[in-house]
């Protein structure tokens, strides 16, 4: 079975550019999560969706960040404009039931570097 | 300390020894999960324990939960080189919160 698929695996771009991260969850999973991991702050939940609807976006750091889930098999996390402090590893995860009631399955992440 | 905070931050033991990691949290929870992360990879779910459970086992893993102390422990018995990784707890109090993890290094 295919796991959660994220693309790209690595992204290096200059400050001010738009960045789009992509995620394909496991088929049949109703919940999709976006996380950010840094050494300083650890793993932070940014936003999660249930059946393509955003449920909790309180972790989104600011208006420069936006996330969409146009259908059950695809989600994007966009940063516009990007800043050096956005450099981190961004993970997407999915689960078939509500948060932490069932395991979350993580992709291998996108390592983002903003110069 | 933050919700879902692990200790120690780092742990080095000899292969074959047992490894114990602890997680503390602040608010009431419904579920607590433990995850493993190998370098450069995503997190992998290890075990889920619900608030009405006190202990769970999965292979060489043993997890305990003490809701009165708001703490959990993960025990890995008979450690192997492949257990070298970072280990995180996650809780579902007001929000989903992951700790900063324990880096476990198994020495040959």
Features:
heterodimer, A: 115 residues, mainly beta, 7-stranded mixed β-sheet, 4-stranded antiparallel β-sheet, 0% helix, globular, B: 108 residues, 6-stranded mixed β-sheet, 5-stranded antiparallel β-sheet, 11 strands, 57% strand
In short:
The complex is a heterodimer of chains A (115) and B (108). Chain A is mainly β and 115 residues long.
The rounded Rg of chain B comes to 13 Å
- Strand-and-helix sequence of chain A, N→C? EEEEEEEEEEE
Distance between the termini of chain B: 33 Å
Gyration radius of chain A, in Å:
13 Å
Could you say which overall geometry of chain A the principal axes of the C-alpha atoms support?
Answer: globular
Number of DSSP strands of chain A? 11
SSE string of chain B: EEEEEEEEEEE
Largest interface: A-B, 24 and 23 residues
Distance between the termini of chain A: 36 Å
Describe the protein.
The complex is a heterodimer of chains A (115) and B (108). Helix content of chain A is 0%, strand content 54%. Chain A is built from no helices and eleven strands. In chain A, strand 7 (65-71) and strand 8 (74-79) form a beta hairpin. Chain B starts with a strand and ends with a strand. The relative contact order of chain B is 0.35. Chain B is 0% helix and 57% strand. Classes of the chains: A mainly beta (115), B mainly beta (108). Chains A and B meet through strand 5 and strand 10 of A and strand 4, strand 5, strand 9 and strand 10 of B.
Q: How does the SSE layout of this entry go?
A:
The complex is a heterodimer of chains A (115) and B (108).
Chain A: E1 5-7, E2 10-13, E3 19-24, E4 31-38, E5 42-50, E6 53-56, E7 65-71, E8 74-79, E9 88-95, E10 105-106, E11 110-114
Parallel strand pairs in A: 2-11
Antiparallel strand pairs in A: 1-3, 3-8, 4-5, 4-9, 5-6, 7-8, 9-10, 9-11
Chain B: E1 5-7, E2 10-14, E3 19-24, E4 31-37, E5 43-50, E6 55-58, E7 61-66, E8 71-76, E9 85-92, E10 96-98, E11 102-107
């Amino acid at each position: 079975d295919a796991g959660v698929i994220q693309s790209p695996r690595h992204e290096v771009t200059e400050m001010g550019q738009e960045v789009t991260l992509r995620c394909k969850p496991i088929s049949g999973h109703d919940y999709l999560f976006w996380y950010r991991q840094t050494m300083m702050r650890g793993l932070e939940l940014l936003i999660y969706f249930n059946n393509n609807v955003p449920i909790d976006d309180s972790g989104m750091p600011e208006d420069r960040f936006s996330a969409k889930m146009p259908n059950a098999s695809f989600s994007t996390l966009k940063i516009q404009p990007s800043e050096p402090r956005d450099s981190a590893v961004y993970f997407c995860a999915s689960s078939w039931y509500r948060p932490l009631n069932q395991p979350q399955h993580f992709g291998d992440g996108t390592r983002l570097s903003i110069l | 300390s933050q919700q879902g905070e692990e200790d120690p931050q780092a742990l080095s033991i000899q292969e074959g020894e047992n490894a114990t990691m602890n997680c503390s949290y602040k608010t009431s929870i419904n579920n607590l999960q433990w995850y493993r992360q190998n370098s450069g990879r995503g997190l992998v779910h290890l075990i889920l324990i619900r608030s009405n459970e006190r202990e769970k086992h999965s292979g060489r893993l043993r997890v305990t939960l003490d809701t009165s102390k708001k703490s959990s422990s993960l025990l890995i018995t008979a450690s192997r080189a492949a257990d070298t990784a970072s280990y995180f707890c996650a809780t579902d109090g007001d929000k989903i919160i992951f700790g900063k993890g324990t880096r476990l290094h198994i020495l040959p």
